[in-house]
Structures are given as structure tokens and as C-alpha cells.
Amino acid sequence: MAFFECFLLFLSMILLFVWSTRHRRATSLPTNWPVVGMVPGLLLNINRLHDYTTDLAAESGGTFQWKGPLFCNMDMLLTTNPANIHHIFSRNFSNYPKGPEFNKIFDILGDGIFNADFHMWELHRRTTLTFFTHPDFYALLEKSIWDKIQHGLLPVLDHFCQAGMDVDLQDVFQRFTFDSICKLVLDYDPRSLSVEMPNVACEKAFNDVADALLYRHILPEGVWRLQKRLGIGREKKLKEASRAFDDFIYPCVDRAEEETDRFSLLALFKKEFHHNTNDSRKFLRDTALNLMLAGRDTTGATLTWLFWLISRHPSSETKIRQEIDNCGRRVDIQQSRGLVYLHGALCETLRLFPPVALEHKAPVRPDNLPCGKHLEDDAKVIISFYTVGRMESVWGQDCLEFKPERWISPSGKIKHEASYKFPAFNAGPRTCLGKEMAFIQMKMVATAILHRYHVKLVEGHVVSPRNSVILQSKYGLRVSLSKITY
């Protein structure tokens, strides 16, 4: 405990020093102070970490060497250079596995696809792809999404609309995507999205995990490990989240193992990994958790930012409404693929607010990046996807503007950008397998809402990014709803 108290005193002294010197700073680039490194600049911007990394990248030409305190192993290279991203994620992919450092920070994900490397990762990816390419998959997906819209989303929104009450759309979207991914992965609907808005510990645990994992990136390892041992701070919430995941997922895994004759994602994984794991029960838990994290947080976050952006850009909302008017009250998968302007609005949302804010890499062998930077083995590299979408050098002078039109070609078709310029779905061999599924779900949900309601942001409600590895709104998205009459 004495170590932790000394660390707090140490930070307090740094804060005092920063407070006394900040009026002299004319740049976002931090000073590399003796002993403490660049920590004072970080602490001064602790409440705006994502925008701070954007400032650093913009002033340093897209790549910045951050220096941590002595003996803390916190030095890291921040890069948003598309050439570097292409090199790390594609051209020299084999030199940048997840590695032990990533696994240490993301230990709660166990042996799932996000932590897997080499043979295990290839097996994970192939098995998941087998499920996504099954002839019945898209019919199952469409039915699952529409059932949740009809029996979950619309009754909840009708309830708040008729009662004249504000509603947090971010909470609604997180519940929707949580129920949907649970049904798809576990064949179980927890019904967290209902009029009662029940507290489901597992669903809320994802937010605590995302917050804690970001702070593991910026705290010295010794500090967060001490917090973990003492059961305090964000590490306490991380432990509680892990317990909530176990209590929720293991019963579903046990049920899936009994129902061996059903086609399901868990059944596929059990079959493929039978000879590759010593504990199939824990492995299935880890696999399910990874897929739930991908399906719940990323889609829910994107829908939240989409509705915030179109609420601030009425002309874009009008164009989306005009496009969906011809589709009727229920949009199917085939119709969703023809919604070009809505697709552009979603891509623009993902550019400005990518759900996964950053990626963490480390080379296993020394490497030279295209920008000229040399990396030793195990050097920490942080790629800020949030910052890439806000770089003038990448997207032009209007990079901070919401323009769905930038994704539409002169012929009226969807424009595609290279993943190293638009890494919202990752890049290279690790590109997200659920990309198509995510677009389908987001379009079906967005059209269901916009066809039935006017959505207005509550006056005075503050919307800003949360300090988290998943880019959520810090205070949710409070809106009022009114019915559209035809």
C-alpha cells in the first residue's frame, strides 16, 4: 500500500509542476522532463486522451515518440501514418503478432481470437468464417435482427415516446447489440432491451472492461498490477466484470455442449478446436466473450455516433430519409445494400469515431518503418484509429467535417478506401470478419428508427468521447422522440 501512496504523491507533485508551467506552453508537444518523461503533459490532458493523441500526431507529422518515466517501460511510438499502418498490418504482418505484451494487457479475453496468434489465430478465423459463409447464415441474421427490432427496439422507443420521456439512445443501442450477439453466438436472448430496461450485469460489464483496458496502456504496469492485487480502482471493476462474464457465459456453454445436434457457432468451435485445447469449457467461454465484445460494443458505438452526427446535420438526415422512403417500414438485407447515402453516412461516422479507438503492436524483430523510424524488438507501437480519420494529411482540409458524400462516386456508387487509410475495421489479414454483418445490422436499425421517429438531441446535453478503448459517448446520447405520421 505504501508504494501506491508514494505513487499518488509523485503524481500530485507532477500536477503541481504542470500547473505552474502550463501558461508558458505554446505547443501540444510535451516536454521530455528528467526522470518523469512526458507524463506531465499526459496528465494535463487526461480528460481528453483521444484528442490529445490527435494533437500530438498533427504537430509531429503523423508519428511521435512518447517517453515515459525512467524504469517504467512506458516509452511508445504513436503513429497515424498510412504507410506505417500498411507496413505493420499488411506488408510485414508476421513481424507484428499480438504478442505477450498485448496478451498481458488484454488477459481478460483469454484464448479468444483477439489474443490469438499464428496457428491458433488462423484456426479461429477459419472457423468463424465457416459460420459466416454458411448458406443459412444471412437468413438467420436477418430474422434475428428483425425479431429484436420488432419485439425489443420498437416497443421500448414507443414507450418513451408515448410517455414524453427522454431516452439514452446509447444505452438502447448497447442493449440491442448485446441481445443480438448473444442470440447469434450463444443461441440465448437475455432480453436486456425491454421496457423495464433491466440491469444485466454482463451487459454493463463491457463498459468497465473497455475503460480499464485503456488505463492499462497509460499506467506503469507495476501500478495497475498493484491495484489488481489490492482489488481497488478500475482493476476491481475488471475483476467484477470477469466474474459477471463467467456467470453469464458458462451456463450457455454447458447448454450448447448438451445440444450437440444443433448448428451453432459454439458447436463449430468445439469441433474444430477439440485437439487444440486442454480446457474446452474455458476456451468456448473465451471465444464467446471475444465475439460478444466485437458484436456488442462496436456496432452500438457506431449507431450512437451516427445519430449524434445526423442530429447536427439536418441536410444529411433529410437525404437519408428520402433514400429510405422507398423501402417501406421493413428493410431487408438486399434493400440495405442499396442504401448508398446511408452507407456513406455510416462510413463517415466510422472515420470520425471508429469504435476501436486504438491498436497496440510490438515487433518480434527489429524493424524500420516507412517514415524512417527504427524499432527495436518489443518496442511499443500505438496506432490511433481515431486520429487517422482526423489527419488533414490523410483526409484533406475538411477532415473534421461530416460529409457522407465523400464516400459516393460521381456515378452514385459507394467509394471504397484502403484499410490503412480507413482502419475502422482493422487492416490487413486481421480485417474484421463481421464487417458486412455490422453494416447490415446498423442499416436495418437506423432505417427502422428514422422511418418512424423524429430524433432530437436533448438541449444542453454534452456529447464527448469517453476515455476507453471503445469509443463511446462519455454521458450517453439523450434524445427526445416524436412519431412521424404519413
Structure, explained:
By secondary structure, this protein is of the alpha+beta class. It has a single domain, classed as Cytochrome P450 (Cytochrome p450). Helix content is 54%, strand content 7%. The protein is built from 19 helices and nine strands. The strands form three sheets. It has a four-stranded mixed beta sheet. The model has no long low-confidence stretch (mean pLDDT 90). One of its GO terms (cellular component) is membrane. Its main location: membrane.
Q: Determine Rg (CA atoms, Å).
A: 23 Å
- Give the strand order of the largest sheet, numbering strands 1, 2, ... along the chain: 1-2-7-4
Q: How much β-strand is present in the residues?
A: 5-15%
Helix content: 40-55%
Contiguous runs where pLDDT drops below 50 for at least 5 residues? none
Q: pLDDT average, as an integer?
A: 90
Q: CATH class, please? A: Mainly Alpha
Largest sheet: 4 strands, mixed
Secondary-structure element order, as H and E? Answer: HHHEEHHHHEHHHHHHHHHEEEEHHHEE
CATH H-level name... which superfamily?
A: Cytochrome P450
Q: Please tally the β strands and state the result.
A: 9
Structural domains: how many: 1
How far is it from the N-terminal to the C-terminal residue, by CA? 65 Å
Count of runs of 4 or more consecutive helical residues: 19
* Annotated CATH topology: Cytochrome p450
Query: From the helix content, strand content and strand pairing, which structural class follows?
Result: alpha+beta
Cofactor: heme
Binding site for heme: 432
Family: Belongs to the cytochrome P450 family.
Membrane topology: Single-pass membrane protein
